[in-house]
Amino acid sequence: MAKDFGIGASSKRREDKRFLTGTGRYTDDMNKPGQAYVHFLRSDMASGRINGIDIAAAEAAPGVIKVFTSRDFEAVGGVPCGWQVTDRHGEPMKEPKHPVLAEGFVRHVGDPIAAVVAETRAQARDAAELIEVDLEELPAVVNLRAAVSGGTAVHPEAPDNLCYDWDFPAESKDAVDEAIRNAHHVTVLELVNNRLVANPMEPRAAIGEYDAADDQHTLWTTSQNPHVIRLLMGAFVLGIPEHKLRVVAPDVGGGFGSKIYHYAEEAFVTLAAKVLNRPVKWTSDRGEAFMSDAHGRDHVCKVELAMDAEGHFLALRSTTLANMGAYLSTFAPCIPTWLHGTLLAGNYKTPLIFTNVRAVFTNTVPVDAYRGAGRPEATYLIERTVDKAAREMGIDPAELRRRNFITQFPYQTPVAVEYDSGDYNATLDKVLEGSDRAGFEARKAESASRGKLRGYGLAHYIEACGIAPSSLVGALGARAGLYEAATVRVNPTGSISVFTGSHSHGQGHETTFAQVVADMLGVPEDSIDIVHGDTNRVPFGMGTYGSRSLAVGGSAIVKSVDKIVAKAKKIAAHLLEAAESDITFENGQFSVQGTDKSLAWGEVCLAAYVPHKYPIETLEPGLEETSFYDPANFTYPSGAYACEVEVDPETGKVEVLSFTAADDFGNVVNPMIVEGQVHGGLAQGLGQALMEGCVYDENGQLITASFMDYAMPLAKDLPSFTVDNSACTPCTHNPLGVKGCGEAGAIGSPPALVNAVLDALSDYGIAHIDMPLTPSKVWAAIDAARPAAAAE
Amino acid sequence: MYNFDYLRPASLAEAVEAMKGEDAQAISGGQTLIPTLKARLASPSVLVDLSGLAELKGVSREGDKLAIGAATRHADVAGSEAVRSAIPALAALAGNIGDPAVRNRGTLGGSVANNDPAACYPSAALALGATIHTSAGRAIAADDFFLGMFETALEEGELVTRVDFPIPTAANYQKFEQPASRFALVGVFVARFPGGARVAITGACEGGVSRWDAAEAALSSDFSAGAVTGMAFPADALIGDIHGTPAYRANLIGVLTRRAVQACG
Ligand SMILES: Cc1cc2nc3c(=O)[nH]c(=O)nc-3n(C[C@H](O)[C@H](O)[C@H](O)COP(=O)(O)OP(=O)(O)OC[C@H]3O[C@@H](n4cnc5c(N)ncnc54)[C@H](O)[C@@H]3O)c2cc1C
């Protein structure tokens, strides 16, 4: 029988009550007494020189309090980058300044030039139209290949537009080259991982507050990690010490990575609140979000996979151009390197791997992590190449994968990481069965009778989650640790407040974390509250991204609960007049082994706070513990996905008929929430593969600047998903044995879909189509192949 | 949005009077106009709200035509028994515009007056040979009403009051959605009358909604899928954008026209 509480139970998401009844508290819901509003005047040019800004008329406009330009930010730093990549020559990456407001030049459409603070939002916007900017248009750098071929530079510091040129592992280069030269067969694939806009439902917002009485700054912001924002903004931009700066991220309506980063608008409202001595609020509208939220993906790659005659993988080589956009966003440099290069083994025992990644500045919005971050790009290039290899070698795609699967764990890959556990054959078996692979040919024939082309596609994925061992990432260039912190406070009557450094913005932590604590203590879930998102309340934590919250944040909670139990046992032993070693704790009861003497959880908690009868000489009163957990390794969720599609050859339209997922997330705390996370990930991954794509024209104008042109998947575009996580191999190095499930769906689904479509089109001899597989692109590929197919 | 005054006239006559104000603009369902205002792409001084005018609402069957008031919402057209029995293709078209929120505010009059090159209704009006009645007492044939992208024969301040749709023997609308906006990337409305067939194309033409004369001629002599199979719409005046090249749109026109004819039975 399914459990009805604690670990393994599908407890209903307690946070949904407030979200579904409109009582969630988002940043934009808050209004502070005396609040003013800021509107940013943003560049409509991709590249330009600012010859002058005339703010006189705007400053005189009704309701305007002050118009800010970069002059007002001369004393502050630029928006910092949190990761430094060292290039193949041992040089640090190029790191041009990212000013809060543009200094002399604009570098992408949406770059903020000036900021108007006024009594109302409308007045601020009206006044912004009165600002006269003498902007001289300069040639824009947009296309990645053109950017590195000489010519215009986005930043004078990087004349060739290269942020870095990175080899990994540098020592494998020659061996890989040689293996590719001598191989029986080499499959070659050039592909693009399309640029995406995260589009969380809630656009970004920020409110700055300043209390002159005690020199306290508060920033309310839509962030996935308030402590990271406090650190970056306080230390690097505004020079505010931590004890004078509070950052609160209340309810946040989705992030998908785009709300990890420290953004200029946050620094602006924080500083402006002090300058004006009143709260300043900013709320992005959707159009602004398209041109100011960090974008995702945007890689151009070439992959070569060398095989022997039986299809054993001998070597993999990839070369990638990765778009950084106009400035380095917080984690941008590490996405195409350490979160991408280290995953290039995939699920396979390819002995030799080498990649070269060149990160490129362009006159576009900064690009950073988006659900999966680097790992989807790695998975896509591997799984597309493996599929193409299967076709070229005449080996069934599932069989080719099996032949190359890693089966022994732990497994040290040739790309630095060590997988702790997994069973790739098991997930493959599950997915082949769940998707009725055996019945596919009959279904294909049925489709053909209706003039439709049916295709079946597989993909495997592996990800490195539970980010990350601090010592390891430190060696790789991270400028912060990546542990997590938790305080567990047991209140005198036995209720529990958990203060976590993780941040929930859709993941359901309030439910899942309570389940873990309830399970460990044998107390009801509703006696536990999960507190997050406020640097004045929770211990220094690194926040939520990289599917790390349960694996790292949850582990910190487990450590604190362990300490609580150990201390409570001491108190119980004293009260029960027994030896500590004779005390057992089960289902919320402390008992003396072999006797009927016991105490309830609440009695011990009360004794801790009312220490009348208490071992005061050896034990402090109170029951509150803080722990920091720094993982020993990444976690490695993996899985197998199968997608079945039908293509209308007359229109190129792809219909996703079924999608089957078999994931190994290690132990699962709340199956319903995990399923929901997979569903969301699949929707985003299929969105990327089918329809999403951020497009700039050659002048750097954003063509897909609204939902009229940027296609988001709707429910009607997706089938009902079949999700399974029974093929589970627990993580070996964290206390819960969990691996993380937030990104998997978005990582594994794009190649599964593309493989399925190309399978459907196999009679046309179409080797590849770049995502998104829009009807027009699929039709164009068919149309171009038609004469060839007809001639055969 | 910029500031504007808002008027809610009690009668059509009052509305016509209000439209004489400088920079006055009608608002019906607001599904096009409100987003335009929010993006500050329009700055009317007065908005004249037509959505409360009972005389602009409703469907009635008058002999061989359906008369639909300009302020009739898409959802009401889609759900109307009169429309469903007389011109099921028109009810289906209305029921597939946007999402429920859009259909419960957006109106027929707003759609034809706006004449978005990717909108659905204009193709129905053109293919069915509808007559657009206006507050100036004019009855304008659809062929003379739609003048080009976002352009119509309406004069300054003139309101659409009603559209009369002749009832065909058969009709079908094939909409191929633009992946992002879900408007028509290409939409083809085929209508069969005792005297011949009419075919209107939306979403594809640089000149806005257009008739396809060659297909009409072919279908008028032989109303069958075979008559239009292999026919190609000239690609030279077709829209090309990130969602489809002119060649792709030309292909869709051919495919959708054939399918529409097939669906007419
Ligand atoms: C998300 C979304 C999806 C949509 N999808 C589709 C789709 O798939 N297919 C489609 O065809 N449309 C679609 N639309 C547009 C929708 O049908 C609009 O409702 C319609 O185009 C305009 O009608 P309205 O009543 O909302 O007009 P309004 O927005 O009120 O007005 C539009 C214009 O017409 C003028 N106007 C309004 N009424 C009159 C009148 N009686 N006389 C003269 N001028 C008038 C206004 O002044 C304004 O210029 C969509 C809209 C949205 C927001």
What does this structure look like?
The complex is a heterodimer of chains A (792) and B (265). With 792 residues, chain A is an alpha+beta fold. Chain A has three domains: 34-371, Aldehyde Oxidoreductase, domain 3 (Alpha-Beta Complex); 405-411 and 418-459 and 636-791, Aldehyde Oxidoreductase, domain 4, CATH 3.30.365.10; 483-629, Aldehyde oxidase/xanthine dehydrogenase, molybdopterin binding domain (Aldehyde Oxidoreductase, domain 4), CATH 3.30.365.10. Helix content of chain A is 28%, strand content 23%. Chain A contains 19 helices and 30 strands. In chain A, the strands form eight sheets. Chain A has a seven-stranded mixed β-sheet with strand order 3-5-1-13-10-11-12, with helices on both faces. In chain A, a hairpin with a 5-residue loop joins β21 and β22 (496-500). The radius of gyration of chain A is 28 Å and the shape is globular. Chain B folds into three domains: 5-49, Uridine Diphospho-n-acetylenolpyruvylglucosamine Reductase, domain 2 (2-Layer Sandwich), CATH 3.30.43.10; 54-166, 2-Layer Sandwich (Uridine Diphospho-n-acetylenolpyruvylglucosamine Reductase, domain 3); 170-264, Enolase-like, domain 1 (2-Layer Sandwich). Chain B has helices at 12-18, 33-38, 74-79, 81-86, 88-95, 100-103, 108-114, 121-128, 142-145, 213-221, 225-228, 246-264, and strands at 5-7, 24-27, 46-49, 59-62, 65-69, 131-134, 139-141, 146-148, 151-152, 160-166, 170-177, 184-193, 196-202, 210-211. The N and C termini of chain B lie far apart (48 Å). Classes of the chains: A alpha+beta (792), B alpha+beta (265). At the A-B interface, α3 and α19 of A face α12 of B. Flavin-adenine dinucleotide is lined by residues 25-33, 50, 70, 97-98, 102, 105-107, 109-111, 113-114, 116, 119-121, 154, 159-160, 182-183 of chain B. Chain A: Residues 21-139 form the Aldehyde oxidase/xanthine dehydrogenase a/b hammerhead domain.
